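Table 4 source record.
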Amino acid sequence: MKKAFSVIAIAAVMASCSNKNNDVSDVQQRTIDSMKMEMAKQQVIDSMNQASAEAAAVQKDAATQQAATATSHSTTHHSGGTRSSHPTYVTNNTYNTAPQTPNTQPAPPQKKRWSAKATGALIGAGAGAITGAMIDGRKGEGAIVGGLTGAAAGLGTGAIIDANKKKKEQQQQQQR
């Protein structure tokens, strides 16, 4: 009887050990599968980002080509009238004298952005209010004073930034 009990106990221990190994490998397999799924998701995200970057580059190239085409379609004057730099022929081998207009599409409307003054005032007010509330013993009064002071400083900084941007734009337009 002792022998039978020992054999049963050993068999039970071995069976439980083999189940633990299966459980460990099952957990490992689930972890591996999870990691594979995450890698697949990341690959999809990366490919979508790459596709959108390529699309943006194509749009930029198209806009550049369109601008170059618009400038190259200038007309020149000859004794026979005007003809474009790229003549089109009519059936009797004479130049078509109708001026060619470039196929330009209107630029998409840009989002209206805040000026640097407004942005600076907002950021300054927030930072000043937080700093004033932390420094002053009376939280409300410190926040108000700090907010007003920060807004004034941000407004001044934003005005300087706006002025510099305006100067740069004027210089670029004069160079063209």
